[in-house]
Write a structure and sequence with these properties.
The protein has about 200 residues and is an alpha+beta fold. It has helices at about 1-35, 35-70, 105-110, 175-185, 190-200; strands at about 75-85, 90-95, 115-120, 125-130, 140-145, 150-155, 160-170, 185-190. The strands form two sheets. It has a four-stranded mixed β-sheet, covered by helices on one side. A four-stranded antiparallel β-sheet has the order 7-6-5-8. A hairpin with a 2-residue loop joins strand 5 (about 140-145) and strand 6 (about 150-155). The N and C termini lie far apart (about 145 Å). The model has no long low-confidence stretch (mean pLDDT about 80).
C-alpha cells in the first residue's frame, strides 16, 4: 500500500513538472509571434507620422498645382491704379482686359508691364499700379474770363488747361463771388466742382 502511495505522489509531481514545462514553451512561442505593447505603440506612432508627412506633401502638391494654374482668363477683371506724387491722390479704374495677356501667368504679365507693379493677380482680378509725378486730373480752377465763368484743369503748379466753358455770366454773380473767381477758386473732384457751379447758377 505504501508502495502504491509513493508511486502516486511521484506521478503527481511528474505531471505537474511536465505541465509547467509545456506551459512555458507555449507562452514563449506566442510571445515571439505577438509584439509587446510598446512595440505596437511605436509602430503606430511611426505610421501616424508617415500619414501626416504624406498629407503635408499632398497639400503642398495641391498648392503648387493651384499656383501653376493661376493665369489670366477671358473674364478676368483688369484694373489700373495710378499714384500721383504731387497731390498724394490715386486713381483706380477698371478697364477692358487686353487680349494679348489672356492665358498668361503672373511672371509673363510682369514682363508685358515691366514699367508697372502687379499689385494683385488671380484668375478673377488683376490690378497694376504706377507712380507718376505731378497732380491727378481731378484738380480744377474756376475763373472769370471775358465776363464768363470758365473751368480749367490744373495739371501742375503753373499749368492750367481749359476744361470747360460755361454760360454763367459775371452779371449774375455777387461781388464776393466775383472777387473769388478773379483770383481763381481751386476745387478738387468733379462732385465738388458741380456743387460749386450750381451755387453760381
Amino acid at each position: 500500500m505504501k508502495k502504491y502511495f509513493s508511486y502516486g505522489i511521484l506521478i503527481f509531481v511528474c505531471s505537474i513538472t511536465i505541465g509547467y514545462v509545456y506551459s512555458r514553451m507555449w507562452n514563449r512561442a506566442n510571445n515571439d509571434q505577438v509584439p509587446n505593447r510598446s512595440t505596437i505603440y511605436e509602430n503606430s506612432t511611426i505610421i501616424k507620422e508617415d500619414v501626416a508627412n504624406e498629407n503635408i506633401v499632398n497639400e503642398n502638391k495641391v498648392l503648387e498645382t493651384v499656383s501653376e494654374e493661376e493665369k489670366v482668363m477671358p473674364n478676368t477683371k483688369f484694373a489700373i491704379k495710378k499714384y500721383f506724387s504731387k497731390c498724394g491722390h490715386f486713381k483706380f479704374n477698371y478697364t477692358e482686359l487686353p487680349l494679348e495677356i489672356i492665358n498668361l501667368k503672373k511672371e509673363e504679365v510682369e514682363k508685358v508691364y515691366s514699367d508697372w507693379n502687379v499689385d494683385e493677380f488671380s484668375n478673377k482680378e488683376i490690378v497694376i499700379s504706377q507712380k507718376e509725378d505731378g497732380l491727378c486730373d481731378e484738380h480744377y480752377v474756376i475763373k472769370l474770363d471775358n465776363g464768363f465763368v470758365k473751368i480749367y484743369n490744373k495739371t501742375s503748379e503753373d499749368t492750367l488747361n481749359l476744361y470747360r466753358e460755361t454760360d454763367i455770366s459775371k452779371d449774375y454773380l455777387t461781388e464776393d463771388d466775383i472777387q473769388k473767381l478773379e483770383i481763381g477758386m481751386l476745387v478738387f473732384g468733379k462732385g465738388k466742382l458741380n456743387s460749386v457751379l450750381e451755387d453760381f447758377e
